[in-house]
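Form P-L/3: holo structure prediction, ligand D-malate.
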Amino acid sequence: MKLNVYAIPDNVADKELKDKTVVIIDLFRATSTMLAALANGCKEIVPSAEIEEVINMSKNYEKDSYLLCGERNIQAIDGFHLSNSPLEYTSDKVSGKTLLMTTTNGTQAFKRVSDASDVLICSLTNVDAVADYIAEDQNDVAFICAGTNGHFTTDDVVTAGAVIHRLTNKVENLKLGDLAAVAKILYQHSANDLHGLLKSSTHYGRLMDSGLEKDIEYCLTLNAAPVIGIYKDGIVKLADKVQD
Ligand code: MLT
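OUTPUT (holo model):
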């Protein structure tokens, strides 16, 4: 099994994803938020790169069946029901709803995965479930980090490292690309103090400056949302709700 990590979506050519299992990571905060919503009973999530597209899509849904969700530059979007804080996605708000979501970085990554055979969403909040899924699936894996504003972010790479670390004990003959090997070492050296590793990172700092320390705490809580989200035909659903 080959594992490769791509620091930002632009680093990966579509053909490299053909027939691979793709794992999309945006720890702060899109994939952490999506998994919180799935764990709390939302029907599905439709990720979009554009605010306008999300608003136009909503016209195709019954009024009480959907929520407009997301952020730009960490801030809530005027007129949207929910921001990109995972703590807002409580079951009383999201249960049974279709979430039409757009974020600055996380939802942009979904544009790159059309050729993949399987697309999972990943955070530290479902790290064990993702490792178990990959170990059982036995397919080559491409971890796509959302990054921040087109740049490398430590938080996404260390999350990939957390999954790879767990696979080391589950799968024989792992072949790691260079950044996958670095991600694993980074996680192994920082697993006991992820705040210590990340507090100097850009995105962590921006979230702290925005008073969102509770979001950081949630996103760094391993297995807080132990579910598998699969992206297929433009929609993210719980794995057991995805038709083959
Ligand atoms: C994201 O895509 O998650 C945003 O860029 C950042 C955030 O909401 O903190």
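COMMENT: The radius of gyration is 17 Å.
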